[in-house]
Structures are given as C-alpha cells and as structure tokens.
Amino acid sequence: MGLLDDLRAARRAAGGRWKTPNPGTDYMVPALLFIPDISGFTRFIEASGSRLAPYLIADLLEILIEANLLDMQVSEIQGDAILFYRLGPPPSIADMVMQCRRIFLDFQNYLRLVERDTDSDLGAALRNNDLTLKIIVHYGRVSIAQIREHTKLMGRDLIVVHRLLKNDVTGSEYALFSEDYLQTQTPADITRSFTWTRLLRGSTVYEHLGRIEYRYAHLTPLRQLLESADAGPSPSGQQSNALQVRRAIRVPASYALRVISNFRLRSRWMQGATGVLYDLTKAGRLGTSYKVDLNRGQIDFQAVQLFEDEEERTEYVEKISLFRVFPNSLLFYFIQPVDAHSCLVTLEFRYGHVVGSRVVQFGQLRRMHRFLGASIRQLAALCERMNRKQLSR
Hints:
DUF2652 domain-containing protein; 15 strands; eight-stranded mixed sheet; Alpha-D-Glucose-1,6-Bisphosphate, Chain A, domain 4; A/G_cyclase; 2 domains
C-alpha cells in the first residue's frame, strides 16, 4: 500500500484517532508545497464592476491547475490562491523553475486573450487593473489527515508556506524559493537554472516562526515570451506553438460560424467525437462550457471569444481543458468571406507545451495535425451538405 493507505488504515484501526504504526515515527512526511497566488485579485473584483469578473477568476484558477507539470495534488483553493503539494523527494531546481515559468506564461497568455475584447467591461477592467502572479515554493514535512473525502495537510511547514505569501519582496510578480527547498539542490544547479533572471536573497521575520530566509526571482523578464496581443491567424502556421489547417467551404461565412458554434453538431464533424454534453439553456452563449466524448476520453471546451471586424472577418475562440497532452490549449476559428456564397475557414490550435519526451511530443503534434485536417474536411462536408438541404426546401 501507499503512504496514504497506510495512514488511513492506521486511523481506522484506532477508531478515528491516529495510532503509531511504528515506534518513533512522528507521522510527518516530506513534501513539496507550492502556492501560485493571483496578485491584484481583491482590487480587480471590487473595481471591475463586471458581473463576469468572478467567472474570469475561476477560469484563471483552472488555468493554474491545468499548468501543473510536476504531478502535484491540489490540497485547497483559497479565493485567489491554490495550495499544491507533492509527497516524497523534492523536484530538481530545473524542473521547479520550468514549472514556475509555465504557470506564469499560461496565466498571462490567457489574460492577454481576454484583454483583446476592447468592447467588453471585463477587457477594460483588466487593462485598468494589473492581475499577475506570485509563486511560493517550499519544502518541508507535513502530517496528513483524511477528513471524509478531503485530504488535510497539517504542520509547521504549512504555516511557513502560507506566511511566505506576506514577505518583504518588492513587486507583485515573482517566484520565491525558501532556503529549506534550495538546500536540497546544489549551488551549481541553482545557478544554471536562473540565467534568464537574477536570484536575489531575502528574509522576513514572522511571529512565532522567527526569521525565514528565502531567495526570489522576478518573473517580469518572461513577458518577452508572451504571445502577441494580435491573435489573428499566423501566415502558413508559423506562429510559435501553433498548428494550422485551412479549407475553402462553399457556404456563406455566417453559415459556417453557426455550424461551428453549434455544440449539438460538434460530434458530426470533429474527428473521433462520439457525443457532446452541454446545458441546453446556455447553448450559444460565450462562456458556456461543454464536454466532448473524444477517442475514449472526454475533453472540456469553453467558448471564450467572438470577434467580427469591419470586413466581416470572424474569429471564434474556445479554451480546451482536461487535455492532458496539451494543457491550457486554445482552438481558434478564423472565418474569411470569399464571396456571398463561400468562405475560407482556418483552424488554429495553440498550445503552451506538450507533455512527454521529445519523441512523444513529435508524435503527438503529428497526431494533432492529422486530427485538425480530418476535422476541417468533415466540417466542410457537413456545412455544404446542410446548406444544400436547406436551399432545396
């Protein structure tokens, strides 16, 4: 049995009280503790005046959970922060820095997508209130209690990681690493992992805990890696981390958009889709989520954006969740009128990273490109067939 199973069995045997399984144990286990915290959360909620603000925060928390590269578990969500943990030995500093970079970039890229909607109150609120991220990394020992279906972590190091959210670091976007974590790494590995920014020393005195030392790195240099705010279709699929297919369809652009945005029709053209689950009362609204049964699994889609410019070019965007191979990915549909009876449709799949080794990544990207190609062919066939049937009536 695993550690949690041993602890649960011991608790059941003791009638709900902890019993020492082995003399001398203190029920404490080593664990990585990781907290991404949304800076500016309270000010944004109060100042935005948008009824959609809480839903955006929920989307951002989901983005943070999706960006989990280290197979961490979620212990709790506290308003604007998530406590992750991973039992066992600490991850390498290289992996830890990669995790911090990924979660920051996914968070900021999604914000940039929402900010593009210049006509919405939510977009304006984001431009006036700078939401960003700070990250706390700590390594220590915790005890574990199972309270019904909830796993509760306890111990001094839980207090430490939460207290580190209030520190003496200037600025609002940084990654802070406690000395307890850094002491598990070699100085050479630490130096190699921070060539992109400076790792600075700091410490804060906390009541009952004393002085806690840490080092921190500002995340601002990573903003140079963010996707362009102009999310239009990239020429020949040349945008970084994007796959693109396009096809001329012999239906009006407005008709193609109706078919694409109709959740009920998704399983009739998306390759491998066998069914769709969604709330009938909310179909067709931006922000609506739906689930697609796809290749013996299920993936969540959410309609997040719809634009139409003066030349009637349309852009429709969906966020994809629970897609383990491509976490925090987006599917863009660009619809360009050719004439009154036909249009050019582009499907562009944008992803932050691909899970797996380089060989696995290459294979998954090829599979995704084939999936997009088959889907757009089936979309074109469905649109033209439905349009012919409608015109023949």
